Amino acid sequence: MSARTSDGPTRAAVRDRLDRVTDPELDRSIVALEYIDAIEIDGGHVTVHLTLPTAWCSPAFAWMMAVDARDEVESLPTVETARIALHDHMHETEINRGVNERLTFAAAFPDADGDVDAVRSELDDTARVARQYDAVETLLDAGLDADAIVDFRLRDLEEDELVPDRQFESDGDASETVAVSVRDRAFAVVVPAAPLARYLEKARETELVANPADVLFRTPEGDPIDAETFDLVHRRGRLATVSMSSQGGICDGLREAREGRLEGTAND
Which residue of 100, 173, 190, 245 is most buried, as measured by CB atoms within 10 A? Predict the structure, then answer.
């Protein structure tokens, strides 16, 4: 058996992968949320240190972020192993051991009720609905009505021009636009690309949109939308967006308070 060696990844490459990991409750990058404390690279072995806003953040949410961070870093061809070091969390011992020893959530938390996959699926659906709200708002701002929006299919988008939102951020250009065909290509409108790209990314992840003829926008339950119920579905999307934004504000406040306490302790 030959030992595989590697010069290792760059720190920028690791951060780019971690930027793809989201806090599942907020649907925001853990890099943008400043959860990453440090990245250690030793050849092909990477250790990621992270701290969440509170010590009592849901173990299921913390588990998902730790697993996703490990898997994203290990997807780099120059990485042999990725280890996660979660700090200042009430269940850091169970999570660090479970994630780094490749255990299941049930094995790491034998007393837990329910399966983490069910939690992830529910949060993914909420994120999809919130992203859909932003995408639909973009189309409404372009002057399209409910009849046109509920009839959109995947084939109506110029997919090659759509990349995830983080790509727009890294390129420093959030003004990219994309052409969207309307009413069987009778005409087209040009709209900001980022909201549509973010929605399409999550719609694909939740396996609601895959084929060119698939209806693009859905109810929270995953069904096509009737024009008559468009307003109701759109309001439910706004509710999901407001809920995430409010929770994000709470987390930001908790993190700032925690950092303030730590600075106060260090200055004592």
Answer: 100
Q: Provide φ and ψ at 213, rounded to 5°.
A: -85, -5
Tell me how far apart the alpha carbons of residues 234 and 211 are, in angstroms, rounded to a whole number. 24
Three-class SS state of 210: coil
Q: In angstroms, rounded to a whole number, what is the distance separating the alpha carbons of residues 244 and 126?
A: 9
Residues 221 and 5: their CA atoms lie apart, in Å, by 47
- C-alpha to C-alpha distance for 174 and 184, rounded to whole angstroms: 28
pLDDT above 90 covers what percent of the chain? 66
Is-contact 5 43, C-beta < 8 A?
A: yes
- Model confidence at 171, pLDDT cuts 50, 70, 90, reads very low
Calculate the alpha carbon distances from 40 to 37, 131, 220, 255 in Å: 10, 33, 40, 23
The CB-side HSE value for 41 (13 A sphere, CA atoms) comes to: 17
Residue 164's pLDDT is 53
Look up residue 241 and give its two tokens.
Answer: 């967006």
What kind of fold does domain 11-114 have according to CATH?
GMP Synthetase; Chain A, domain 3 (3.30.300)
pLDDT band at 3 (very low <50, low <70, confident <90, very high): very low
Q: Cα(19)–Cα(72) distance, rounded to whole angstroms?
A: 9
- Looking up tokens 């996959």 gives 117
Cα 208 from Cα 40, distance rounded (Å)? 38
pLDDT at 246: 83
pTM here is: 0.81
pLDDT surpassing 80 at residue 257: no
Domain boundaries, the chain: 11-114, 118-162+173-239
